[in-house]
Amino acid sequence: MTTPRSRREFIRQMGIGAAAMPFVLNLPSLGFANAPPARKQRLVIMFSPNGVVPWNFWPDEEGEKFTLKESVTPLAPWQDRTLFLKGLSIKMQGDGDRHMRGIGCLLTGIELFPGNIQGGSDTPAGWASGHSIDQEIKRYLQGKPDTRTRFGSLEFGVLVPERADTWTRMVYDGPNKPIAPIDDPYQMFSKLYGQMKDQAGVRSILDAVAEDLRKVESRVSADDRKLLTDHATFVREMEQELARDADLQLDHVVPELEPGVREENENLPKISKMQIDLLVNSFKADFTRVATLQYTNSVGQAKMSWLGIDETHHTLSHEPDGDKAAQDQLTKINKWFCEQMAYLVKRLDETPEPGGEGSMLDHTTVVWTNELGQGNNHTLNNIPFVLVGGGLDFQMGRSLKLPNVPHQRLLMSLAGGFGHPIEKFGNPNFCGDGPLTGLA
Amino acid sequence: MNCLHTTRWSLLRSWLAVCWLAVPSCLTLANEPSPGEAIYRQQCASCHGPQGEGTSQYDERLTGELSVEALSAYIHEWMPEEAPEECTDEEARQVAAYIHDAFYSPIAQARIAPPRVELSRLTVGQHRQVLADLVAGADVAAAWDDQRGLTAEYFNSGRRIRDEDRVLERIEDNVQFDHGKQPPPIDNLSAEEFAGRWQGGVHAPETGEYEFVLKTKNGARLWVNDDETALIDAWVRSGEESEYRETRFLLGGRVYPIRVEFFKSKQDPEAGLTLSWRRPKRVEEVVAPDYLSPHKFPETFVMQTDFPPDDRSQGYERGTSISKQWDQAATYAAIEAAGYVVERLHEVPGYKQDDSRRGDALRAYCRQFAERAFRGPIDDELAAVLIDRHFDQANSPEQATKLALILILKSPRFLYVDLHDHPHDSHAVAARLALGLWDALPDEALRKAADADELQTREQVAAHARRMLNHPLAAAKMLAFFHEWLNLHHMQHIAKDAEQFPEFNEQVLSDLRESLDRQLNAIMWSEASDFRQLLVSDALYFNGSLAKLYGAELPPEADFQPIQLDAQRRSGVLTHPLLMTGFAHREQTSPIHRGVFLARNVLGRRLRPPQEDFDVISPDLHPEMTTRERVALQTEAKACQQCHAMINPLGFSLEHFDAMGRFRSEDNKKPVDASGEYRTIDGQPVAFDSAVELAQFAAESTEAQQAFIERLFHHVAKQPLLAYGETKPSELREQFVREEFNMQTLLVEIATTMAFEVESP
Question: Which of chain B's termini has less CB crowding within 10 Å, N or C?
């Protein structure tokens, strides 16, 4: 999957002997040693497709006392740090069917361009016409030295189909600039740790290179020998620099991935866990403070045979409310997604905040969302938004019911939570009332 | 100075004896030693030796890096050892100036040390090409036959192309159609919704950045040298976008797999697609069939690592110096190449991902890789260190492979050109020959010859060299040579005054480059391959628009073709409008640039750099003067005339060509005077009336031929010609004359020399 273009980027980032490790590992540079560091804030946006079963998802109550419905029971241990936001809607019209608009407008808050992708209904469409909120926050954080990280953002995927179209892309760097999530854990691993592995590899062979240089020396004239002795000096210097870098990275544990897990439907649970582990590790190493985690795609067709479900997800989601068996299965499917969120939350909760107070969960907000409110009626009202964690200073442990407001208002709140107040995001016609009030 | 039978080197030395030993600030050429030299001989030579080589009493060589100033201060303070107070400041300065130029400085040492074949690493260009050969393995030249265009297929498919929907396969010239609202004129193809695919190879004539452009209002995507990840993915049409561009760095002389796919959806009102590109230093144009092949080609590994530039201080790129940056870049390159290979292990024969014995296949692959990388067989002892050790220790055979490859690519045996066990071994000869002609690795035929030890006679080597000329890599290396010879790399950004030259623009410049390249290639690869034709041919390659600009008859839409011009006016590449444009200012010609080019590059004369401070005389100060008169005035001082007596008349010979290379009879309303005189290296005066006469002289002159041979030798071998013997230059020239100045034969001779004639260390 590696293209020459990404190879070039890789090489640019890569540094051997150029004292690169402090950058690679985001080690504090001396310049900031005296200023008290502001607390780190992080955001994860997790996506699962095809809507939810509303009566098994939204709490009946409003306020601080509420009961978790079946789909979301895995969040019970963190109920006091969870926030349900019912009543947010994707109100934009324009081109594309609702699955397309659902995922394409979800984080961008702006319409799709007209195009040549014809959905099941409505007019054909292309890509979203603006960038997504995670990228807005990334730009803001990367713009300041004290919040800048090696990657700025990481886009994780889990079994996202190998095709680039409106249904498979959620994150946008700008108009017509979709960003493909990396759904291969091994590829993500090499993005995160490939350099360190390669540095270690290079270090292990330098002795042999030096030895080889000594051996060939006898083949050249005395006049030419200087070139080879100079060469040997450079090899020795590289060895020393790599040894020093290796000392610097001792306290960061590189995760071990189970080898040979193929990208197949049956491996969805395994890949999900691998990606979440990598995500938590990249937060721990401060490689990034913004991440997205996209399960399959809008209209996704996961077949959760491990739950005893033989029908594919999107197909099931079209079944009517009265089909109890189907609704039960959909509830199970959403509960499984919620378990993934719970695993992520648990990992964050049990990891002490590096260089800070409390756990990483105290500094991270995880948002779980979806392209539809409910699958069988394709509504873009009551889009699921469930938040867990303390990354944004919102008042958690509540169930809020909002009066059918544009979802752009939440997008603005997310930016505001990072100390980056914005007055509009996406289509300004839906931003008049500003960010949501009463979250903090 | 009778130089007909002396070598260039001794010539240079005698010239230096006159010029360099003189006190630099004083231009009188005295026979007496300079004051510095006099003092040195008297005061210093008894200990340091007459040339600073040292004596039995004091054996350290008097060489180093200090500047004249620093050296002077040192001498003043410390010398002579027993009585430093005796040396005055002025005397120290004089001695320092003398010894610095005579033998102390690195430059002076380079002058004194006799040329030899120096240990060299691969140049950056060679490194790229060699890695491409190593990693790809297959030689693609065979597939590049005479068939041009791409294999086109049409499908009654929509967004998902299905092979069973194919209705037609044929070869098309290139990718360029606009059916508008009409159905495509293909039987059984649905007008409402259809798809197309074009694939084959694309040839990159020179190394550089190639920008590919897709124009469509439908869905389309493009793959170049990567079958998996599209370079341009415009399968989703979105908004008003209808033009997509991406750049890929490609190595010259190679053919890359290319694939374009297209679909028209039911909703698209029209169907149209164009594949264009922008080659290095060219404007955008539709990819012409000349660069396309309908056959299949494998991917080529193109190294992306940036290297520090090679040393060019001798006028050609060579690998005789290394630096820390270079060592780091070589490391990145090794990691990059090893990573590329490890991602494609499924292509290794005998490798299966879950096979417990896959280690054996990979071990064998690594050994083969090492033998190709080192351009010769390796023994078990070396294999144990390079390869086996990793397989015995690493976590997985894949990781072992990666480490082994990194180590191989970091080994001096790979990085340096000539670290073979025996320099006369057939493998060593093959390696040098392939680097000489291609900057790349031996192909299969050459490897087989080496394995059979059949590169032991000069004729055996020459036979392979002749065969190897017929390869795109040889063509690319020669084209790069011509560009260097004609100084084209100094002509990156040419702009002309918009009022005087409103017709001149990037398109014209790009066409001129194409015109020159076609002429060079046509002469070089013709049967006669006659060097003299480069200088005296009266044909130029014009297309319709160039013809109009430069006064030739062609229909406006005509493609490039050779046009016979007035033989009294134009002469070979010397008067090519690109050169005339490049060696000129924005508004006027520049006889000095043109003269320096003729003196240095064509006639092989050595010139000193100009004096540091002078003001160019503005034309406004002397509105009545011609360019020739103004340049003469500018350079009339005696100090200038040392060089300009030669430069100016040469440059004036081209005054018939204005600043964009059009013929003119008048300059500033006066008739152009292109006459002049040139003194050859042995002092013979040659008079000429025009560039045509000068070119005719140059074509037949010993010095121009000698200069050409020397330049070509350096470009090919990346070693000094004189290292192959004091008489080598004249031998090569005599043979060049006997062979009717055939450049292909010369190239074979040069490559054979550098491959075959080596001394044991």
Answer: N
